[in-house]
Amino acid sequence: MLKRRSWLGLAVALSVLPGVAPLPAQAQNNVVIFAAASLKNALDEIATAWSKETGKPMPRISYAASSALAKQIEQGAPADMFISADTDWMDHVDRKDLIRQDTRFNLLGNKIVLIAPRDSKTTVAVKQGFDLAKALAGGKLAMANVDAVPAGKYGKAALEKLGAWDGVKGNVAQAENVRAALLLVARGEAPLGIVYATDAAAEPNVKTVGDFPADSHPPIIYPAALAREPKSPDAKAFLDMLKSSKARPAFEKQGFTVLVKSASST
């Protein structure tokens, strides 16, 4: 258990971590969800619908890079559940005994794509040996952190597999999460970027100019699980709802592939 001084330090840490908001005292019964930044559109819609249907308090969702969220959970952040954008960070908290293993499941799949600003004339054939450096024309390639954030790790793996990494690694603008990388391209601050297909679909100021082959990177899997000791009495009900047919349309509308079999049931 954390001592009082440790909790005070944690509150300060939560207040400054991008995407992670501190919890007010009156929100203690809300389901607290730590979720990968790329889930924002779909999960906001699902949480709103669930709250209206059940009359339960609106879930409090902190969106950030899976790496940042996992580290906060490790430090004792009061999350009821964690939805990661890769299995590595879920494995990390699992090894620390910070989730309930019996509640863990693979919820979603995704793809990574190459994007450009909406009005860009750039065209890129993403394939083995393609010249990404030439397409950048001296500009920056926007990516989530390639060493820790899932979207960045998937992107780097794909570029390495396709033989393009060495040509662009010195021109990568690394962002704290995939939505931040998306914003760099949407604002025209980077001519190209690598994000999830779902992020590209959610941002009207970018367009997809190339799809990365599925075999160029590890499978993109979003696992979900309850924390070891969830505080909200509604945490399990919300997690179960994510596996139901009620949540499926919101995920699919954003371009996710629903992996859990029970999501297709009624």
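That was protein one. Protein two is written in the same sequence-then-structure order:
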Amino acid sequence: MSAADDERDDLLLLFKALTDRSRLTLLGLLAQREHSVQELAALVGLKEPTVSHHLSMLKRRGLVRQRQDAATHWYVLEPDAITALAKRLSSRAQIASLAGDAPLGDWQAKVVETFVAADGTLKSIPASRKKRWAILAWLVRQFEEDRRYAEKELNAKLLERHWDSATLRREFIGYRMMARERGSYWRLPEAGWIAETGEGYRP
């Protein structure tokens, strides 16, 4: 299972904990102050075992914390929980990363089929930004993550695909698909790539 799969599963469980009116009411009360199970049951009109069940789910998801005072269990909202959730979904790149290694969309596959010859070379570099992005994404995924490539090595690999290696290198950097430092290049995580629309693109 990939990191994206783990993140998706974790978020699904978290959202499941929130998709219940009673649990949302309990969270609201616990955001005001600390409450015992008995107090909460009286406030929301539920039986204590039912409230305990809801609180157990919220606790497992890190949304509330519990302390025990003699025989009484006290609960309160975990203050950092909502902030942490918002941070995990605070940017388009972070949401896009949930796709993980999903297969190419139909349009991307069609672009690759159109511009890549049977021998794996590029017939041309697309003029359209959207189509060019699809080709760049296809090409950069052929480089290993967590590995640095000297410019000479990168050029050699790119020249196997197309004669204009300088443009391909520049586009990798512009779309933040690769980073460069002192003649060394490395592939960046897909979550940080600039989208195919070219918004925010820096050549």
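The radius of gyration is 25 Å. Keep this in mind for the problem set.
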